[in-house]
């Protein structure tokens, strides 16, 4: 218990509200949710905010790239910005940091976004009526 208390007492909290509390950011994990959960969530975020930022670390980078490609290939999104970097991560307090790769992909609505989303919604309504 002392280790936990010591870790909390030594925790550095910085005000990074400009980057970490974005409402249109999706932090993707390749273990927590299925791929199309993130694809559908990104569509909803684009409807609400006109753009979405997909972010991932390490092994989840491939998942973020796949999500972005699905949205682009279906004509829903256009690529606005891609940023890569490395971040220092510690598995446990006191261990030396390990660098992990990070990617951030910003996607915006395509010109056909609204039209494609309406057509998809109509397909759902049509398919619900035909049982």
Under CATH, the homologous superfamily reads: Alba-like domain
Shape: elongated
Helix/strand/pairing category: alpha+beta
Instruction: Assign the CATH topology.
Output: Translation Initiation Factor IF3
Specify the biggest β-sheet.
4 strands, mixed
Task: Report the helical percentage.
Answer: 40-55%
Question: Stretches where pLDDT falls below 50 for ≥5 residues?
Answer: 1-19
GO cellular component, one term: nucleus
InterPro entries: Alba-like_dom_sf, DNA/RNA-bd_Alba-like, UCP030333_Alba
Protein name: Mitochondrial substrate carrier family protein
Domain DNA/RNA-binding protein Alba-like: 24-85
What are its keywords?
131 residues, alpha+beta, elongated, Alba-like_dom_sf, RNA binding, UCP030333_Alba, Mitochondrial substrate carrier family protein, DNA/RNA-bd_Alba-like
Describe this structure in words.
The protein has a single domain, classed as Alba-like domain (Translation Initiation Factor IF3, 2-Layer Sandwich), CATH 3.30.110.20. The protein is elongated and about 60 Å long. It contains 5 helices and 4 strands; from the N terminus they run H-H-E-H-E-H-E-E-H. Residues 1-19 have low confidence and may be disordered. Strands 1-2-4-3 form a 4-stranded mixed sheet. The protein has helices spanning 2-9, 17-20, 35-49, 61-73, 113-129, and strands at 25-27, 51-57, 77-89, 98-109. It is of the alpha+beta class.
């Amino acid at each position: 218990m002392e280790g936990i208390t010591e870790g909390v007492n030594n925790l550095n909290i910085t005000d990074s509200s400009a980057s970490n509390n974005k409402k249109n950011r999706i932090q993707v994990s390749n273990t927590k949710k299925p791929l199309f959960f993130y694809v559908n969530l990104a569509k909803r975020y684009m409807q609400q905010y006109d753009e979405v930022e997909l972010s991932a670390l390490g092994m989840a980078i491939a998942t973020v790239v796949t999500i972005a490609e699905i949205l682009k290939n279906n004509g829903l999104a256009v690529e606005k910005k891609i940023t890569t970097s490395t971040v220092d991560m510690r598995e446990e307090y006191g261990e030396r940091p390990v660098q992990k790769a990070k990617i951030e992909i910003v996607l915006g609505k395509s010109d056909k976004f609204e039209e494609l989303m309406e057509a998809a919604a109509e397909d759902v309504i049509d398919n619900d009526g035909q049982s």
